[in-house]
Amino acid sequence: MRLPVPRGPLTAALFDRLTGPPGDLEPPLVTPPPERALDDGDLQLALFACYELHYRGFDDVDDGWEWQPALLATRLDLERCFEGALARAVPRPPVVPPEGVRSALAGLVAEAEREAPLSQHLQRAADLEQFREFVVHRSIYHLKEADPHTWAIPRLHGGPKAALVEIQADEYGGGRAERMHAELFRATMTGLGLDGSYGAYLDRVPGVTLAVSNVMSLFGLHRAWRGALAGHLAALEMTSSAPNRRYGAGLRRLGGGPDVTRFFDEHVQADAVHEQIAAHDLCARLAAQEPSLAGDVLYGAACALEVERRWARHVMSRWRQGRTSLEEAPLAAAS
């Protein structure tokens, strides 16, 4: 993967420097105010690029940039803007004692699941082009599925650590590369005539899609946010089975075979188990170990649900207007 096309002055300046040797960023990059940071394509792409250096990186960026102090300072400015936007958009859930964390998570999820227009649309009415757009949006995370949450493993101990490892082992296919969820998703993309290369559609997704991935990396790369990362994972697992059942049904309605639907079918079964592990063995036990993290656990879950809700609203709003939910031209088939 190479650096994407800049989306504004922030990414233009950042990418120009990242293609050179690691060094200072002078003058410092100026970040925008946080009011629209959750869907600001320029800011979200800049933050995504900074985070990506901790994952698989870019072919045209020297790996020495990963821990370059000036870039970390720039990333911190971007993160403060992002955190401010999250704080404005996501009220802190009411404080509960550790023993109330599991039921509080269930309450947050139940409220979010009352609105599910996107998964219902994909099941019953979406055409093939809309489904392909949906898969392109999801590729930004699913082609590195589980990686952001894995950052928490060395930051936990005891029961919560064992619970997270149990979930992640399934996400990574139990040691079988072809069963890794990222590989199953790649097969879905290929079956839909899309490019399954890592980051192939980074230029095509809007800022709100990048925010879905960035909030995971924000929580994952900071030990201070380990409680929020656990809550984020729990929210994903607890809201996964029913939508994935709908996605699989929608693809079968459009003629998709087992190779195309396997990713979604796998999540119907696996995440029904994972949600119990994540809510009880990971989050509730983490809150019992460290009661000060109970609030962060619920906040992380609330952030996951709100960013997902904003992304789904964007997609459905564009489709109702008869427009693509992606950036630029209509989606082309893979060559």
Describe it for me?
With 335 residues, this protein is mostly helical. The chain has 2 domains: 9-89; 98-320, Heme Oxygenase, Chain A. The protein has helices at 9-18, 41-52, 69-89, 101-113, 117-124, 128-142, 147-150, 158-171, 181-191, 207-220, 226-238, 241-253, 258-289, 294-320. Helix 2 packs across helix 10 (207-220). The longest helix has 32 residues, at 258-289. It is globular and about 50 Å long. The two termini are 17 Å apart. The relative contact order is 0.15. The model has no long low-confidence stretch (mean pLDDT 94).
The fourth-level CATH homologous superfamily of the largest domain is: Heme oxygenase-like
Order of helices and strands: HHHHHHHHHHHHHH
Structure summary, number of beta strands = 0
| Gyration radius, in Å | 19 Å
Q: How many separate domains?
A: 2
